[in-house]
Structures are given as structure tokens and as C-alpha cells.
Automatic annotation (TrEMBL), chain A:
Domain of life, source organism: Eukaryota
CDD domains per UniProt: GPI_EPT_3 (cd16023)
Family: Belongs to the PIGG/PIGN/PIGO family. PIGO subfamily.
Keyword annotations: Endoplasmic reticulum, Glycoprotein, GPI-anchor biosynthesis, Membrane, Transferase, Transmembrane, Transmembrane helix
Pathway per the UniProt entry: Glycolipid biosynthesis; glycosylphosphatidylinositol-anchor biosynthesis
Sequence intervals crossing the membrane: 7-31, 438-460, 472-490, 496-516, 570-588, 669-686, 698-723, 744-762, 840-859, 866-883, 957-976, 1019-1037, 1057-1075
Organism expressing this protein natively: Menidia menidia
Gene3D superfamilies documented for this protein: Alkaline Phosphatase, subunit A (3.40.720.10)
GO BP: GPI anchor biosynthetic process
Protein name: GPI ethanolamine phosphate transferase 3, catalytic subunit
Lineage: Eukaryota, Metazoa, Chordata, Craniata, Vertebrata
GO cellular component: endoplasmic reticulum membrane
Location(s) in or outside the cell: Endoplasmic reticulum membrane
From TrEMBL, chain B:
Recorded topology in the membrane: Multi-pass membrane protein
GO CC entries: endoplasmic reticulum membrane
GO annotation terms (biological process): GPI anchor biosynthetic process
Record pathway: Glycolipid biosynthesis; glycosylphosphatidylinositol-anchor biosynthesis
Organism: Menidia menidia
Location within or outside the cell: Endoplasmic reticulum membrane
Top-level taxon of the source organism: Eukaryota
Name of this protein: (Atlantic silverside) hypothetical protein
Entry keyword set: Endoplasmic reticulum, GPI-anchor biosynthesis, Membrane, Transmembrane, Transmembrane helix
Transmembrane segments: 12-36, 42-63, 84-106, 112-132, 153-171, 183-207
Amino acid sequence: MKGLPVLCLLLWTCAVYLVGIYLFVGGFLLVRLEVNRTSTCGDVLEPGEEPVDFCRARPRFRRAVVLIIDALKIDFARFDPSKSDPRPYENKLPVLEETLSSKPSQSRLYPFRADPPTTTMQRIKGFTTGSLPTFVDVGNNFASSAILEDNLIHQLGQMGKRVVFMGDDTWESLFPKKFHRSLPFPSFNVKDLHTVDNGILQHLYTTMVGDSWDVLVAHFLGVDHCGHRFGPDHPAMADKLTQMDRVIRSVIDRLQNDTLLVLMGDHGMTDTGDHGGESQKETDAALFLYSPSPIFPGPPSQMDPDVVPQTDLVPTLALLLGIPIPYSSVGQVLLPLFHPPGVAGGAVGGLSQLEALWINVKQVNRFLETYSGMAKDIAPESLSQLKEQFARISSDYLSSVREGRPPSAQLASSLQAYLTAVRDTCRATWARFNPLKMAAGLAILGFACLMCFVLSELSLPLIQEAGAGLKAPAAVALAAGASVAAAQLLTRGHAEAAWCLAAGAFCSELFFFWTARRLNAPAVLKNGTKAGKSGRWLTARRLLVPPLVVPLLRCASLLSDSYVIAEGRVVTFLLFSLALYIPIHLNWDGLLLPPSPDPLKTAGLLPSPALSPSTVRKESCALLACSGLLIGSLFLSLSFHGCREEQGLCQPSPFLSSLSRLQDSQIKNLHYILSVVSLGICTYLLRHCLCHYGNLNASGGAVFAARWVLPLLSVCLGLHWAVSATPEDSFRNLAELIRLAQLALPRAAFCLLGLGLGLIWLDPLTVFVKARAAGSARGAHLPPPRYRASTGISPQAELHHLIPQIYQRMRRSLEDGEPAGGGGEADGRPAVEAYGLGTVYSAPLLLFGGLLGIGLLLLHPEGMAASFLLLLLEMGALLYIHASSITLSGLQGAYSGGFNVPWTPVVLWSLAATQFFHATGHLPTFPSIQWSAAFVGFPNGHTGTIVPASLVTLNTFASHILFAVSCPLLLFWPLVCEVRGSRGGRGGGEDGEDAVMEMRLRENPQQFSSALLQLSTRYLFILGAQVFSSVCAAAILRRHLMVWKVFAPKLMFEASGFLMSCLFLLVGVTLVLRVDVAVGRWFKRLVPDASR
Amino acid sequence: MWDHEIRAMASTHAIIASSVFMATVLLAVFVPGFSVYGMHLLWIYAVSGAVTAVSVSVFWLLGISPPTKKHTLGYKLSRLFRSCLYFLLSCLFFHTVVVLYGAPLIESALETFSLSVLLTSLTTLRCLCVLGPHVQAWIRVFSRHGAMSVWDTALQITVACTLIGAWLGAFPIPLDWDRPWQVWPVSCSVGAMIGYLTGLVAAPAWIHYHRKHLTYKCK
């Protein structure tokens, strides 16, 4: 068999997919490293060289009220009295205009520009840390959403200021335990316009009047929710804004002289009321500043900026309140709020404009140095430019301070220019989607899916001439990549790896399509009768069959947030539908029931294939029973699901919590027994299956693994659960032992797993050979051999799972030149018997998957053992359904697809992977990752990050891994079960075929390779289509309210799941090829033995 | 070729469909504050009852039902009893399937059972009327060459349409639109009903267009 081309084609397909994903994700997900340092009062930021305690100075304002009205767009805040017929959202906040005109030196209104992503949580992060949050802020702490970077709230707390918060409960999760007093209200229900606002209003005024606060943060959500529900152009919005107008009035009335009012929106909204994207309507919010005492030098002047970036609020507020600027802020102080150089400080204290700017510049420069030391994502040339700029202005500034001369006006502007340059650089690095990369990624992914489909349809001709056809795409890809790299080097001086990869992938795809066209054409020409059929493999009729409609529905469901939230149930529903479809479809084709003896059929076309009513009935019963098993395990698996926070009335499965957390000891024992029993059944089933097909008779590595490693692993696991479930204080005197066991047992299990997998890899053969003379004494549990000479070319003999005589056929195919000199065999007495040869391919694979499954179970909570048992049962049911339906079709002559696996089982297989992703308690959200997996066997934590990361990955994608590894079983199982059919046929007196089982594959190596390739590409196609559609969802819905909560995490999980599936599918296929090589060697060794 | 049967079938279907509408309209007139969503169970039972009564009487009058071999009263009674039993069993069967599909097991068992009653009266009842209480015959009808008369083909079409309608009806349930018809089991039963009505229209039309190609084995 041609193993290498299959592997190379698969590798290449996976690589193309991954390049597409990489490209898209690179343009879509913005990654930034978090700097976990905090500013302190002792930081040397003052003009002089000597350290000054910065916080001791008297701040400009003692207190501040920060009113955040979610989605307060700048258009809502402006007032245009000339409008006679204002829209519902216009002119509804007259208080701002009144204040601005009557007290120009106390108030200002600015457009307040947010950075994308314009979602509330990211914005809160933005205007408290002063940095540009991205979707993935890589920090130390993935599990909670708390902000670890230095921020205003933290600094205020450090300074002893009492921060009182009320409103949107997002703040509470971002700043847990940071507030002096906190009154969060649930923000989840978008339909609810009033809960949060009314909750705030109940407390706002009483709190303001009292004296137990320094900074008051109130976050109103009504306007945002009103936008989401009705859109801005709706009377409800007018009501809401009018309410806000009253609120602002009352707050202004209650302000004291030393208090600053900051009224702001965190982002804007589109005309439909959505936000999240980067259009100006979404980014431009309003910022209104007011104080009862004059804060501005006069009415708005040239000095005032047109637009205030959101990050600028952070340094401004920090310096006005006399706290250090948060460490990673890249904002720039709002100059009009500080007194200009000529004017002395006057009555109120505070910094001059230049001092404020200098402090700001020093802080930003310090952050930039720290960040560029940690991460390399800022372009080096711009970095060096910024450094140069800083050196110049700092020397200017210091010299002017030292000499005491008044600083030039130019200096202020160059300081400002520096700050702007830094912010622009950072923004270019962190806060912008890259639509070109996203589009390129989408295109490559789309083509890769199409390519997979074509590959699966043309697998046979491709394999037939793959030797020549493979090098060309690789060469094309390399050439394209290299040329793009060269072009980039020439024009821009440096090459970006992403684009080179993209060019390579894209060109190789195009080249493949060209090759496929060429391959398809001769196929059409060769068999003229089938020309029409093979030319039209993309017609609607072939695509609109249920097995392809179901994945289509699945992909479509990824585009809706409701369906993604309910994904576990959606997938189960679809699986269930497809499982019901199989028997219904078979019945529709008249294959499920034995055909009635009616005259039309017997006179007809069928050359009466081997079919007896009893066989058909037996197969049908098996099929229905397996369908029942499948449906039952589908139903039971629903009880293992976890809950997303969006699903309001949902109880997470009781099996998800680990045993040690259960209080009631009776329930604990019950759970433990259930888990151990499930584990035992899993192990027993695996062993029984191997034993049944005679794979446990040999003495090789794989058999050793099956006999000893598998049970030992299970025992280890059971003991580990028992130990980890013991309460801390119940066995005091054994505490040391328990601690040791907690460390040793899982590690022993890991070692056993490694040993088992390694043994299977090294010696995958599970065939037991014995000479004819030994008789069947060894196989006592097997029925005695029966021999039967047939009229065929070779003597035929068959036995239950015992395939003698195979080597004769093999010898013919191996040494075709040599005359088959087995004169001794002509008498119908085979010289060699081999147990387990019929399942030589599937046994190691099954064992590999089983060992891996038990190993992965180790990383899960104990209760999941039952879920893994269901997984095994469902896998078995799927395999048997597939085998039975093939046998039924084959028995009645309706199926003649060689070894090809039809779409239905592949679709079922891939959907089952997703289904068990949910049924093992996982969800495509970051908070639901089971972090405890990282501490299995490492209870004291880790030093590196690779081991915990890989453990968590293995835990999260366990079902993807298991289904991908065992995917080739779909190819083998009909052959494994073939013996049942022919046995039945023999019982009915029919002339059944040989029980050759998987040896058929060796007889047709080319068909074997093509079927393997087809199966893998079909599986990859279904998975790839899912990735493609979730990528589409993320790209199309990047302004959707739920993009960062639902679609982006879904994309990450889908992409990582695909990566793991690819990896382990390749492992599975490689294992099959490894077995094939071993079988080939075995035959070579056997033939001289036998002829001796 | 089948003109007579097609005409009979079209009128039968028209009568059944009008009975569905009549049941709904009568409810709306006589029950104060009636709406299909608000009093859904009432609607389901009314419609099921109407369809059952009308189908049984129409098919009995038309004489579609397979001829009984014996004419003794006892045989007829046992047939009636078997039919009732099958009706009940089919309700339970549909209930199980719907629960396996993901309907809540305990909470809204009454709603689920009502849906299964509706499905039974739309599908199984017709099987009973056309084929009599023979499960073997039912299974055989749903295969490519299983139809033995125009009525069997119509049966295939209506049953498939009803079930597909109910299946499609489950799609809007997870959406977060908060509409009254997304409540379990409104969308499914309405979907099933729409599918059934579609099937009633589609069956004679399909048979009419394919009348040249339809061949049936003799019974």
C-alpha cells in the first residue's frame, strides 16, 4: 500500500487549513501582553532629579463623580435648538447645553473616541487602565476576568481613597474586592431597561449627600439596552435619555466645590443600536466634564482638542486626583484641565500643563521600555524612532528646567507629539482588525474545504498517480512563498511569515484544482457511459441528501448566537435525527426487511446475491439494537452538560464537580462506585472485544499492553480517584501517605499510558501464528476448525476468527515472479494458522484509542467516567450501525463501493466528537475550561507552562482526540463484521465468501490507500466546514453584541479543536500505516518459514 | 389513469383540511379569549379530535380501509380494540421519541403528550384508516416500492410532511426572540399542522403530476 502519498496529502491538507486559520486569527484576534507592574508614589517622574513623594502634593480635586451612561453617543449629548422636529434621540439632554452656555469655564463637552472592540467590558478595561485592551490580553490569569494590570481603581485604593461603585455588575467581576462599597446590579438581560438604572437611582443621591466616599462610579445601562432592544430611533430611547437628563441635573445640584463630575459614554452605537465594531458611530461617545468651581481658563478655545481619545481620561483623572498614572496607560493628559505656563496655579493647587505632560511622557516611556522588553510585537523601526524622540525632548526639558528659563511653547507640542506617536504605534499593533488578513484567511479556508471535498471524491485516481502529482504542489507552494518573501524583502525590508505562508497555501490550492480538473477529465473520457455521472459530482441532487444537509444545518447554526449557546443540544438533536435517518432510509430502499417473495423481483435483475431472510433479519435486528443504544447514550449524555452563563435557568451536571467537593458521604460513595463501575465496564469491553477477535493470543508488545497495561491503568485510575476524594482531615495519620499517593498514582498512570502507547507503536501486531501440527489446542475457546475444499483457485478454509491460508494469497502478490510452489497446500491443508489476522489493523487502533481514552479520563472529574463509558458505547454503536448498514446493502447487492465509507457515518462520527465535547462537561467559553486538569499528578503546581497547557488542552479536546484517532475504525469495521454475514450465509446453505476480514485490504492496497484517504479527507471536510463557518460567523458578525462573548471564543475553541483533530487523525492514520508495514514484514518472514 | 382516485383524494383532503380550520374557528368563536398560543392544549385536542373524527368517517364512507376477511362482530370488535390500542401505543411511542429528541422529561409532560397525541392523529390514524392495524404493513408502506395504491402514496407523503414539519418546528425554540410561539410545544405542533396541511395539498398534486409514471403492484 502506498502509505507515504496518503500521509503527505493529509499533511498538506491540514497545513493548508491551518495556514488559513492562522491568517484569519492573526487579523481578527488582537493579542497584547499584560504588564503586571504598578506605579507608586515614589516613582521619579517629577522634573527634578531628586525623588519627590508625588502623592503628598495637594491634588486639584479631592473627589470625583464618574457617571457612565453606557452607549451615550456624542449625537445624544449635542443640543441643536434650531431643530424643530428632533428625532427621538436628539435634544434629549438639554442640561448639558444649558450648563455649557451658562458656565463656560466650568464645563466642557467633547466627543470621546473609544478604541475597538467597542464592547462594554473591553471599554471599562480601556478607561481604567489607559491601555488598549484586545480580545486576548495574555496575562497570568486566564480563569477569571479580573483586571490584573495597573488601573485607576487600584491606584485610588492604594491612596486610601474610598471608591463607591454602583451599576453594571461587569465592574464587580473586573475589580473584585477593590471597592469601598459596591452595589452591582445584573446586566445580563438586554431586554431589561430599568433594573440597573433604578437600582443606581435608589442609592446615588443618598450616597452623594453622605461623606463616606471619595470617588463615586455609577454605570447606567438603560440607554445601551434600549439601543439593543429598540434601536436609537424609538420613543423608548427618548424616555430613557430624558430620565438621564434628570439624573444629571440632580447630580450637578448636589456637587460640592472640590468635586469633579465626569459624565461619559463608554462607546456609541450604530443606527440599529449595536456596537462592538470600529465605525465612527460606534466609537464616538460623549465626554462631559463639570465642576462647581472654575476649572478651565475660559470658554472653549484653540487649545481644546476636537476629539478626546478614551485612553486620555486615565492620566488626566489620575493627575487631577493626585494619584500616580497607572503603569500601562498610553493616554495623554487633557491639557485644558491644567493651568497654562504663564498663569500661576492660582487659588487651586495642581500641576502646570508642562509638568503634567512631562510626568505623562516619563510614565509612557517607562511603559514602552518595559513592554518592548517583554514582547516583540511592536515594529523595531518605530520603536527606535520613538526612543530617539524621547531622548531629544527629555534633554530639552531637563535643560530648560535646570536653567530656570521658561520653556518654549514648542516643547509642549513636541511632548504632545511624542505621546500621540506612542499611542498610534500601540494602536496599530493592538487595536485594529486586519481586514486583508481576515479575507485572505477566509479565502484559503474556503478553498481548503472545497479541496478536501474534491480530494475525497477523487481519492482513487489521485492515489493511482500520486507519486508524480505530489511533488508539484509542494514545489509550487515553496516557490510562491519564497517569491512573496523575496518581494517583501525587496520592497519593505522585512518579510512577514503570514503572507508567505498564505501565498504558498493559495498557490498550492490553485495548482491542486488544476490537477484535479486534469484528473477528472480522463476519468470521464475513459468510461463514456459514466461520463455524465462523474462529471456532475457537484450537482444539487447529490449535495442535498440528509447526510450532507445535517452538517449544513450544523454549520448554519454556528452563525447564530442562540444556537451556539445551545450548541450541545443542537448537536445532539442533529445526531439523533441522522441516527433515525439510517434505518428509515434503509427501509425506504427496502433493505431493512427481508424481501417478500414477490414475482416482480425474482424475475428481475438481481443475480440473487447471498441473502437469506434470516441473515437480513439478524442484521436488521443488530442495526436497530445499535440504533437504540446510540439513541440511549445520546439521551443519557445530555445529563453531563455544563452551563453557560447565558443560559439562565440551567443547572450544571452534578457529575462535573470533583468528588472531593461533595459533602454528603453517601452521595460521594455512590458517585465513586458509579465511576469505578463505568471504568471497569470500559476496560472490560475493550478487552472483550480484542479477545473476541482472537487478538490476545500472541505475545507481542501490543498484546502486552492490552493484557497488562490496560487493566493496570484502570486500577491506577480507580485508586487515584479514591485517594483524591478522601477528605483532608479524616485520615490524619495517613496524610503523608495520601499526599504521596496523590503524587505517585497519576504519575504512574501517565507512565503506564506512555508505556502502553509506545509498545503499541513499536510492535503493533496482534497475530498469533502456529504451525498446522499444533492443532487447535491453544484456541480452546474457539470452535474447532472446519475445512472445506472449494472449486476456487486456492483451497478454501475458514474458521471463526481464524484465518489460515492467507499467506498463499499474499505470497502470490508478494512474489509474483516465483511459481507458487506450495504443492503441499493443494490438498486443502493449510500449513499455518494465524489468530487475530482478521483484525490486525483495527486491534492496535482500538487498543490505542482505548488506552488514550482512559488516560484522558484521568484528566477529567471522576463523574465523567460514566460519560466516557457512554462515549465508548456510542462509538461502538456507530461502528456496528455502519457495519450493519453496509452489510445489509451488500447482502442485497445494493452496495458496491469498495472499501469506501459513505458520508453518513463520517458525519455521525464528527458530530459525535462535538457532542461529547459538551457531554464531557466542556463548553466553548473560557471560564468553563477545567483548569484542575493541569494539577493532576502535579498537585504542587508547575514551573513551566508547557506541561500544564498541554494537560489542559488534552482535557478540553478529549473527545475530539478520541474520535479523530479512532476515525480509521470506520473503514475497518464493516470488514471486521463481515464474518458475521457470511457465517449466517453459510448457515443458510449459501456459498458464502471467505472470512478474509481485513486481509481484503492487503489484497487491494491501492483501494485501501484510496479509501483511507477518502475517509480522512471526508472527516477533515466536515470538521473544516465547521471551522469555516465559525470563522465566517466571527468575520460577518464582528460588530455583533455577542462577538467577544460567544463567537470569538467559539472560533478559538473550534480552531483549537480542529488542530487537535488534525493532529490525532494523522496519528491514527500513521498508526494504520505502521501496522501495514509490520504486516508486510510479517508476511515476508512467514513465507520462507512456510516453504521450508 | 388514476383520475377518479385523485379527485376523490382531493375532496377528502379538502374536507379534512376544512375540519381543521373549522375546529379552530369554532374554538375562536365559542371560547372567550381563545388564541392558538394562549390555550394551546385546547387547540391541540380540538384539532386532533376533529381530524380523527373526520378522517375515520370519510375513509370509512369511501371504503378505503382494507376489506375485512370476516364479517363477524367479534372480529370487528377485536379490530376496533386493536386500533385503539395501536393509537395509544403510538402516542407513547411519539412521546418517547420527542423526549429523546430533547423535550423536558418531567416538567411539561402534559404538553409533550399532547403533541404526541396530535402527531398520532395526523400520522398513525391515517395508517390505521388506510392499512388497518397491521404494523408490518405500515413498515412496508414506507419503502420505495411499498405503495400499493394511490392512497398509500398519499399516506407516505402526508406522514413525511407532518413529521418533517414537526422536526422543523423545533428549530426556532432555542432562539432568543421571546415570542409566544417559541414556547414548547407550540412551534412543533404548529409545524406539524402546517406540514400536514402541506401534505394534504401536495399529495394529490404530486400524484396528479406523476400519474403517468405510477405503477402499483396488485394487492
